[in-house]
Specification:
Oligomer: heterodimer
Largest sheet of chain A: 7 strands, mixed
Radius of gyration of chain A: 31 Å
Largest interface: A-B, 76 and 74 residues
Shape of chain B: globular
Helix content of chain B: over 70%
Order of helices and strands of chain B: HHHHHHHHHHHHH
Number of helices of chain A: 22
Distance between the termini of chain A: 68 Å
Structural class of chain A: alpha+beta
Radius of gyration of chain B: 25 Å
């Protein structure tokens, strides 16, 4: 019967057809056999797909991984985390400053303030005065005439529904006569130096209302919001730090077009263009203007003192000729969009974001959504071509799947978890790295609560916890002790500060001295109240949960009663952290490389929804934080950060626990290929930099046919 | 007949609008914001978030947002929040990736379930029958993702070959035959995994359907005529037992979208199911809505097709 045979025959043949394909597929052992290109191909796994391949628009790690290969910034960070020139060769920082005539003020000698008199007095102090700073830094002075300008101010108004509304107000600003200073270096104390001449109160009682006039009638609410912006619209004393960048000549984009100052200015303007909705705006907002001096020189003038602002120029530079208005207009016409779509068409809609062209080491080839992104090396890169010919980022959402692919040789790198790394540590066909990142884990105390108001009590709580044991047993040695708010591998961290000792006896003495005594149940008690609080953390992080239990147990031993709770992230933030309604939390911070701690530690940032949710307030710390972000001299900045670090360590608003190490695994066949003394290739083992980054020399990486013996 | 079809299409169109509106409301009322306006991003200032919300029409009333969506979908200008790419071409690309997996899994289900079920029915109560009953209930009970993980571990552990995704990487410069066979190999495990559950379920239906048919009078008559057993089973019984399954073809259609979310996720297969899953995680409303809409269209079309097919293959049924 033919039907019966077919019913048996078809499924069997189908299965055999499918299974024979196994013999055509490469295996781990011979992945390069018959396919030598595999050795110059690098394949990395990513959990999520990239979203938008544009350095000014991307906000996710997958996109930035690709963007960093395709685009290049003016500067980047070298192996010691210092700034290094890339598209820029070198740069100078100096300052322009302005001082406006305050007509309602009188000089200490009683005379009225006029432009001429102001200029004359400052000039005299500069030429004949005793202030060394004024003499050394000021290079020239001039008196600028009064002008009138118009501008649009964006105000954020609180609304009844809770979501703030934006309101743009046009204002006319009368700028009276001003004295303009040119300084050889940025001097945040310039106006303080002038106070003996100007009088202590010169910068107060400035008649803003007369100088800044809105062009329409405003409601009370809007007027109030505008009033708060007055000192920003017309500063009495204005610092304009200025950076002059000299650009590398003869660099081309991957389409052959030459890179020049116009691209830098264009990139800045694209970020600030509200239509582009760039997430980089906060980094570039301190910039007042970007001027093209000549084809290879740009001058960047900042609105105010903010030294970390220069780090923003590590961001990739866009090619102007592909994204300016002419190019975008051409694109939208070629794509035949409807009128509505043409109307709203902007950089975000451009196909450029799917086919980026930059000036980095690798150029874009292809993007298959949720599958892979393919780059190939840019052969005419100014520093010479990379060793790898092809670069793939594969999108594999599951960590398990990533590991499986890693073991078949179908990917070269994935973000292995510590327990996965453990499996490779004893296998001689893999290499692994363990290094510090920019993160740390802490127990934070709500400094507003009377229970934690005393620094000694916070210190005693910290001394009761054995952090070394935590690192040993909880972190499997993948962590290092840390003592303050800066990442350990930056120069802002003061390595001479010793961590709190583990000393529960001493901790008990401190409690005793503060009036806490053990009651019958063994709990510390004062005025009939026992020392009791809630320790909370977020769900989904088993290490934090374990830390909480360890701390609870350690504190129990010295008589402190702690209740622990775990909440979903949204609840944890919404109901506790943002409202300040908690006692203590186990959390971590991931820091940047700049020394600015304003958002996390300044007392003005302790309101609801702000990041200083521990409510840390210290006048000296506030001063230091502001001085640090305004200081442009690296040595002075380092001294200040060390002082701040020590201050915070002494105050112990957090118990600083440890900085986790991050571990990474690679096929051991991947090595650094460097030119030896005799011109031959030399192979070296890959090593992590001070920043913990092992990919700094990625352009020298290549896969060998054999496993080298290092 | 034509009257019936036209009336049905009309009813289904109305239903489609209701379904899409309800789905639209549900998706927008569910907690969570598109990741582009996530208020937890410390770099985003409230001003920026307000601007993005306005650009996405997120603060408009629901029915206005629905109208915007219909308008953009109709004009083909609907764009994903995530990457501002047009939604329809994106879905089409993913559909082409899902198609081979879907077709192969379906072929596997339908070619394996019939012999398995028929033999179970013919040799009812035997070792084979009891074995397959046990096996199919075991396969129905064990979650597919669990079996998939085991399969991956075994294949990778024993053979060291890639099994994930649509093809092996780095094979761009290999011979075309190698490349093709590599693609076939990558289809094997996900499609077998996706088919296993289907085979288990469908073979149960086939078995019970066969059993019912085999107890009919005309089968006894055929046997009484002295026909050999194979002719009775494959000539007389099977054709009649197949009838209800013909209509199931129509119901396969919606499986194109939701059928393999889990397997596409585990095997990193860049198909429709994964597109939908990731869109949901990122609250990418235009993509979720459009996929939902297409799924609704396919379901309605599928049930209509079933009704018509039934009338075509079974002369006893007439549509009015």
């Amino acid at each position: 019967m033919i039907v019966k045979r077919l019913l048996l025959f078809i499924p069997l043949v189908l299965v055999l057809l499918l299974l024979q394909s196994f013999f055509w597929v490469p295996t781990y052992e011979n992945q390069a056999a018959g396919n030598p290109n595999r050795l110059v191909t690098y394949i990395e796994a990513s959990s999520g797909d990239a979203k938008i391949l544009n350095p000014i628009l991307n906000a996710d790690s997958a996109s930035s991984g690709i963007v960093n290969q395709v685009f290049e910034g003016l500067l980047d960070l070298d192996e010691n985390l210092d700034l290094r020139g890339r598209l820029a060769t070198d740069w100078q920082i100096f300052e322009r400053a302005y001082l406006v005539v305050n007509p309602y003020h009188r000089f200490p000698d009683g005379t009225e303030v006029t432009g001429a008199r102001l200029f004359q007095k400052i000039h005299a102090a500069w030429k004949t005065g005793t202030d060394e700073g004024l003499k050394n830094y000021v290079q020239s002075l001039e008196l600028l005439p009064a002008i009138q300008r118009e501008e649009t101010v964006s105000l954020l108004l609180p609304s009844k529904e809770g979501r703030p509304q934006l309101k743009d107000v046009r204002v006319t600003v009368d700028v009276l006569e001003r004295v303009a200073f040119t300084l050889s270096q940025v001097d945040q104390d310039l106006f303080d130096r002038l106070k003996p001449i100007l009088g202590e109160q010169y910068f107060e009682h400035f008649p803003y209302e007369e100088m800044i006039r809105p062009q329409e009638d405003l409601t009370k609410e809007i007027e109030q919001a505008l009033r708060e912006k007055f000192p920003e619209i017309l500063p009495v004393g204005e610092h304009n730090p200025t950076i002059v960048l000299h650009l590398r000549e003869g660099v081309t984009f991957q389409d052959g077009h030459e890179f020049d100052a116009g691209d830098v200015k264009f990139t800045y303007e694209a970020i600030m263009n509200p239509k582009n909705l760039s997430p980089r705006t906060p980094d570039f907002e301190p910039i007042k203007t970007v001027e093209i001096v000549d084809k290879y020189t740009v001058k960047i003038i900042y609105k105010r003192l903010y030294s970390p602002a220069i780090n923003a120029w590590t961001m990739g530079i866009l090619p102007e000729h592909l994204l300016n208005d002419v190019a975008l207009t051409r694109e939208k016409q070629e794509r035949g969009l409807s009128e509505d779509a043409q109307e709203s068409f902007g950089m975000r809609d451009s196909q450029f974001n799917r086919h980026p062209i930059g000036s980095g080491r690798f150029q874009f080839v292809e993007w298959q959504g949720d599958e892979f992104i393919h780059l190939e090396r840019f052969d005419t890169y100014w520093e010479g071509p990379a060793q790898y010919q092809d670069y793939f980022m594969r999108i594999i959402p599951e960590l398990f799947t990533q590991e499986v692919e890693f073991r078949t040789g179908a990917i070269d790198f994935y973000g292995a978890q510590p327990h996965q790394v453990d499996r490779y540590k004893n296998d001689s066909t893999y290499q692994w790295f363990s290094s510090l990142g920019f993160a740390y884990t802490y127990i934070g105390y709500n400094n507003r609560k009377p229970l934690f108001a005393d620094a000694d009590i916070r210190k005693a709580l910290g001394m009761a916890i054995n952090v070394d044991e935590i690192i040993q047993y909880l972190m499997y040695e993948e962590g290092e002790r840390t003592t303050g708010p800066y990442p350990k591998n930056t120069e802002w961290y003061d390595p001479s500060i010793q961590p709190l000792p583990y000393d529960p006896q001493e901790a008990q003495v401190i409690f005793h001295d503060a009036g806490w005594h053990k009651n019958e149940d063994g709990w510390l008690e004062k005025d009939g109240k026992i020392f009791q609080f809630n320790l909370i953390t977020n769900n989904g992080n088993p290490i934090r949960k374990n830390l909480m239990i360890i701390a609870q147990n350690a504190w129990k031993k010295i008589g402190v009663k702690v209740n622990t709770q775990v909440f979903e992230w949204a609840v944890f933030l919404g109901d506790f952290v943002n409202t300040g309604d908690f006692d203590a939390v186990v959390l971590g911070w991931s820091m940047g490389i700049d020394p600015d701690l304003y958002q996390i530690w300044h007392s003005s940032q302790a309101g609801p929804q702000q990041l200083n949710f521990m409510g840390y307030t210290s006048q000296r710390a506030d001063e230091l934080i502001v001085r640090i972000r305004q200081e442009y001299n690296r040595d002075r900045q380092r001294q200040l950060t060390h002082e701040l670090h020590r201050l915070i360590h002494e105050d112990q608003p957090y118990t600083f626990l440890y900085a986790p190490l991050s571990t990474r695994v690679l096929d051991k066949k991947i090595v650094l290929v460097q030119a030896g003394a005799d011109g031959k290739e030399e192979y070296k083992k890959i090593y992590p930099m001070k920043s913990g980054d092992h990919t700094f020399l990625f352009h020298q990486w290549r896969k060998l046919e054999f496993t080298p013996d290092f | 007949m034509w009257n019936f079809i036209l009336r049905n299409i009309g009813q289904r169109l109305i239903l489609l609008i209701i379904v899409s509106f309800v789905a639209h409301s549900f998706i927008h009322l569910a907690p969570g914001e598109p990741s582009e306006v996530d208020p937890m991003n410390p770099r985003m200032k409230p001003e920026d978030i307000a601007k993005i919300r306005a650009a996405f029409h997120l603060d408009d009333p629901l029915h206005v947002q629905y109208a915007y969506w219909i308008r953009d979908l109709a004009s083909g200008e609907l764009k994903s929040f995530k990457d501002s790419q047009p939604v329809l071409p994106k879905i089409w690309d993913r559909f082409l990736n899902s198609l081979p997996l879907f077709i192969l899994a379906t072929i596997l289900v339908w070619t394996w379930a019939f012999p398995a079920g028929i033999y179970g029915a013919v040799f009812r109560g035997g070792v084979y029958d009891r074995g397959t009953v046990f096996l199919s209930y075991a396969l129905i009970s064990v979650p597919g993702f669990f079996l998939s993980y085991l399969a991956i571990l075994w294949v990778v552990g024993w053979f060291g070959v890639p099994v994930i995704s649509i093809k092996t990487f780095g094979l761009e410069h290999a011979e075309p035959a190698y490349k093709m066979m590599d693609r076939v190999w990558h289809l094997v495990i996900p499609s077998v995994m996706a088919a296993i559950g289907g085979i288990a379920v469908l073979s149960r239906y086939v078995r019970s359907q066969m059993l019912e048919v085999l107890s009919q009078d005309y089968v006894r008559t055929a046997r009484a005529k002295g026909l050999d057993e194979d002719t009775v089973i494959y000539g007389h019984a099977l054709g009649n037992a197949l009838l209800p399954f013909v209509t199931m073809f129509g119901l396969l259609l919606p499986g194109l979208i939701g059928g393999s979310v889990i397997f596409e996720q585990i095997f990193a297969w860049p198909g429709l199911g994964r597109l939908a899953y990731e869109a949901i995680l990122a609250r990418d409303f235009p993509i979720i809505m459009t996929l939902n809409f297409i799924a609704a269209v396919l379901t309605l079309a599928g049930t209509l097709l079933s009704d018509i097919l039934y009338a075509v293959v079974d002369p006893r049924i007439r549509l009015h």
